[in-house]
Every structure is written in C-alpha cells, then in structure tokens.
C-alpha cells in the first residue's frame, strides 16, 4: 500500500498541475476584481444585490477550475504579434560571400518575428540548477514544490473547517428544543411573513453565544441562555433576523465560502470577497427586519444590548467564524442610515443573475486569448510611373579599369 507521500508525489509529478493552478488563479483574480468594481458601483443599491454579486464571484472560484480542467478551451485571437522587416534588398544588385568563397544572392524581404532569437548564444540551452533530490531518488522542480505546498495548505485549512463543523454539531446536540409558549407563539406568527416553506426548529442552549441559524435542509435557530429575559420586541427582532438568514440561504453560502477559503488559502481576493459576503449578509438580514416594520432606533438598541450580554467563547474555535462575525459598528451605521436601499431580491432577479454568473464563469474558464501573426506587406507591383533606377554601369566599368 502506497503512503500518502508517494500519492502526493505522483499527483504533482507533472507540470500540468502547476499550469492548471496558475491559470485558475489568474482567472479567479480577474473575476473577483470585476466583482469588486461592480459592488463599488452598486453602493446605492441594496445589500442583498451586492451580496448576490459577491456570492456569484465566489461561486466562480469553484466553477472556473473545474471547467478549465474538464472542458475544451477555445482560443480567441485578440493580440497581434507584429513582424518586422530586417532587410529589403534587390537580389540582382547585392550579393553575400560565404566562407567557402561562393557568392550567394542576399535574401529578399527577410521577415523575422519578434520572438525569434537574435544571437546564436541565446539558442544554446541554459545551465539549470539541479532540482532538490528526494529520498527515493526522484527529483522535484520548483513548480512541483509549489503545488505540494498548495495541497498541504488546503488540507490543513479544510481540517480547520471540519473542526468548526464538528464543534457546531456538538453545540446543537447539547441544546434543547424551545418549549416557552411565548417564544413559540411569536415564532409561529413570524414564519408566515417569510418565504420559508421548510420546517424550522427553535432551540435553546446553555452557552452564552450569539443567536445563529444553522443548516439548510433542516434549519435550526439556536438561542443563548439569556434569551428568557428578552422583551417581546427584542424576541421578534432576533427571530426575524435569523429567519431572514434561513430564507436567503446564507448558511449554504457561508459553508461554501469557508471551503473556498480553505482551497484558495493563498489568494487574498478570495478572503476579501468572503469578508464582504458576510458583511453584506448581515446587512441584508438587518434590512429584512427593518422592512418588516421594526424601528431603526429600537433595533439598534437591541443589538447593543444583546452584544453586551454575550461573551466570545474560545471553545468554539473555528466554528465561531461561521456565526455573526462582522463589525457591529458598521451594522449600526447602516441601520440608522435612512437613505439606504433596503429592497429584497426577487426570485426572477436571483435566477437570472445565477444563469448570467454561471455562463460568465464558463466563458472565462474556456476562452483563452491567443496571438495572431501579422502578415507582412507585399511588395508593390512595378508601374510605368515608377522612377527609373540610377544607371551605375559606367561607375562599375571605371572601377574595373582602375583595378586593372
């Protein structure tokens, strides 16, 4: 049975892995840069719309590598590779002498591409340092070491995410179903105001933590132990906020973001997009609460009061990042700003943006710009109006007599 090290060596023993990784990274950089420019231009639109742009940008980070590896690429000639004319010499007037003494006519209209070597020394193979040697005698080049480093970092990051998921699972397993009739009455009435058709469970934990919505197929809302002392208005605000996360599918996007950050751990734009996605997600849920009739001032007071009651639990580790890990100050500023656009996304817009985003990602993954060679201009045909060439026959006769 082969060891994991031998399997890793086999997977990274070819330059194709590095070229695939480098090409996917460049394409992901392009897509996320475009997403950043779009969200910058959409400052006056709703947080839900900006969240959609970041979500599709992050979705492309997994579609592009898969499409680049499995689908054929299509070259599009968008860059012209110019050619230059080195010499245009009439062969009947000038000749060149070879080392053997033979006389040969010079080349006419010699075309040399820009990428042709200029000196003979440049065509000689360059001396390369030997790649590092492994214990079994195999050698690794630099690009193979980079691929191995990426694989190791991705495995470590995915393990960190798995630990967080396991910690959250233990938290839910130790919680209990909410049996308070006041909480259940408010919760039942608020579910009718959302578009959630799945059954959502309301649970309570003994931990002092931020309220959180967990799961997609069987979503659950986990409340801290201090929720029993909350007023009916605060309970309504918290439940509306978490139900907004369930309706929007934010848990799914957050889990996908955690996995993508683990895979592309070296890419700063991926981490930036993940942070912006979480921020827009929280603001979109806040807008949902305010759009439901809750006063901005009262809602901001509730957030401050809840934040003062809760403490950050270290035992959650990486699972804490899956909860509401955004700056409270920016949320309060957005809540109290009455000029903000707080519209929700319609299902038609959500579906149309998903189709456009997927098609754009596939186009970026499969279309490769190529260079086309520029054609050299043909020599103009002689015309009757062309000026006569100077007659040099007399000068040549004089030179011959002088030599004799």
Helix and strand arrangement:
Blueprint: H1 4-11, H2 15-41, H3 47-70, E1 74-81, E2 83-87, E3 95-97, E4 103-105, E5 110-113, H4 142-174, E6 176-177, H5 181-191, E7 201-204, E8 212-214, E9 220-223, H6 232-248, H7 250-263, H8 268-291, H9 296-309, H10 328-336, H11 347-366, E10 367-373, H12 393-403
Parallel strand pairs: 1-10, 7-9
Antiparallel strand pairs: 2-5, 3-4, 6-7, 8-9
Helix pairs in contact: 2-3, 2-4, 3-7, 3-8, 3-11, 4-7, 5-6, 6-8, 7-8, 9-10
Could you characterize the architecture of this molecule?
The structure is a single chain. With 404 residues, this protein is α/β, with parallel strands linked by helices. It contains twelve helices and ten strands. It has helices at 4-11, 15-41, 47-70, 142-174, 181-191, 232-248, 250-263, 268-291, 296-309, 328-336, 347-366, 393-403; strands spanning 74-81, 83-87, 95-97, 103-105, 110-113, 176-177, 201-204, 212-214, 220-223, 367-373. The strands form four sheets. The chain has a four-stranded mixed β-sheet with strand order 6-7-9-8. Strand 3 (95-97) and strand 4 form a beta hairpin. Helix 5 packs across helix 6 and helix 9 (296-309) packs antiparallel against helix 10. The longest helix is centred in the middle third of the chain and has 33 residues, at 142-174. The protein is elongated and about 120 Å long. The protein starts with a helix and ends with a helix. The model is unreliable at 84-89, 93-112, 115-131 and 133-139 (pLDDT under 50).
